[in-house]
Amino acid sequence: MAKVLNLDEVDLDGRTVLVRVDINSPMDPERNVFLDDTRIRLIIPTLNRLSKSKVVILAHQSRPGKKDFTSTIGHSRELGRLLGRNVKWVDDIYGKKALTAIESLENGELLMLNNVRMDEEENNAKGDFVALSETRMVQNLSLVADAFVNDAFACAHRNTPSIVGFTNALPCIAGELMNHELSKLGQALENPKRPCIAVLGGIKVDDSVIVADNMLRGDICDHIWVTGGVANLFLYLSGIDLGEVNITFLKNELKDNWDSTIATASKLLVDFPECIIMPSDVALNLEGSRADYSLEQLPIEAPIFDLGITSIRALSKAIKSAGTIILNGPAGVFEMSDFALGTVEMLNACAESEGYAVMGGGHTATLVNQRGLIDKMGHVSTGGGAS
């Protein structure tokens, strides 16, 4: 893994430092309260290292159109509570109010800008790091800053101005969380013990397909077991009729990324037909109850909410016999008890395996903590697609 400049190698005392973090947290949209503050806690070591700097925090919460797409004022208050320090907040990202607030900072003070995904360019700008460095966010903020610290490991794979745009504008340094994650992942990916399997699930299907492409073409893993929405996509491309309700769900989730994701996944099936392992049965949500069906019994117009029992057993066996397990995303809708079986058994198998297990994905990490399995895993990452 390439060498990355870290905080041990620079002196940022008295400097104005932009710090990109990922504190995108589960929220109750009705009460606007945090359900889990893990990601906020994880950035504290980096902020403590910058206690003599003027710190400007860039962060996002959800994305436009989602119920939990909010400002970051609540995040600034929660961070301040956890730090025991005042965290200033400004209802701006890179305009006059933000620049004035940044220029008025004293050493040791922290300022959080508003949700960067409220900026159109953050969501829509395309191009390489040179093109993204020309966006207004990067152009304006780089004028009032001395360095850029990236501690947003969970979204480090995003090609957006706030993640990669500053590469061409300011000295860039890895934060404490970023450095820790890169070190742990390097252990798993640079020379993985074989057989190495990846288990990709959840509903961020486009990210998972890119991960699958990188892993197979880079000879990182031997097999990829697909679950959740990722499995549904590959089953669909393999000619399995999943029913209109499941195809519509996939299309709604992928939106503008449908064509590119289909193209990448289709090529993987052609180039690596023996390496992608799909479920042989699924669990449907029939009016709130679980019902397992083999693929031959489909289509049934009901949403797929989990792996079927036969597939769960096969996956558990593969995990227990693997040398390295890279897991990202849940196997189903684990928030509903009837459909948590696939995800729970997958995690139990990782805990029982002699192999080195790396977990990625916010929901997966939360469940590992809830079930008290964290000490039985090799590494529980804060990242999903980034991992």
Describe the overall structure.
- With 387 residues, this protein is of the alpha/beta class.
- It has two domains: 7-178, Phosphoglycerate kinase, N-terminal domain (Rossmann fold); 191-380, Phosphoglycerate kinase, N-terminal domain (Rossmann fold, 3-Layer(aba) Sandwich).
- It has helices spanning 38-42, 44-49, 73-83, 96-103, 120-124, 129-132, 136-142, 161-164, 176-189, 205-217, 228-237, 244-254, 258-271, 309-320, 341-352, 362-370; strands at residues 16-21, 27-28, 33-34, 54-58, 87-89, 110-112, 147-151, 172-174, 196-200, 223-226, 276-277, 281-286, 289-294, 304-307, 324-328, 356-360, 379-380.
- The strands form four sheets. A six-stranded parallel sheet has the order 5-6-4-1-7-8.
- Helix 10 packs parallel to helix 13 and helix 14 (309-320) packs parallel to helix 15 (341-352).
- It is globular and about 65 Å long.
- The model has no long low-confidence stretch (mean pLDDT 93).
**How many domains make up the coordinates?**
2
The radius of gyration over CA amounts to 22 Å
Output mean pLDDT.
Answer: 93
CATH top level of the largest domain is Alpha Beta
Unreliable residue stretches: none
- Strand coverage percent: 15-25%
Largest sheet: 6 strands, parallel
DSSP strand tally: 17
Structural class: alpha/beta
Helix content: 25-40%
CATH fold name of the largest domain, please? Answer: Rossmann fold
Distance between the termini: 13 Å
The neighbouring-strand order within the major sheet is 5-6-4-1-7-8
In CATH, the homologous superfamily of the largest domain goes by the name: Phosphoglycerate kinase, N-terminal domain
Our count of helices gives: 16
Q: So, CATH architecture of the largest domain? A: 3-Layer(aba) Sandwich
| Apparent shape | globular
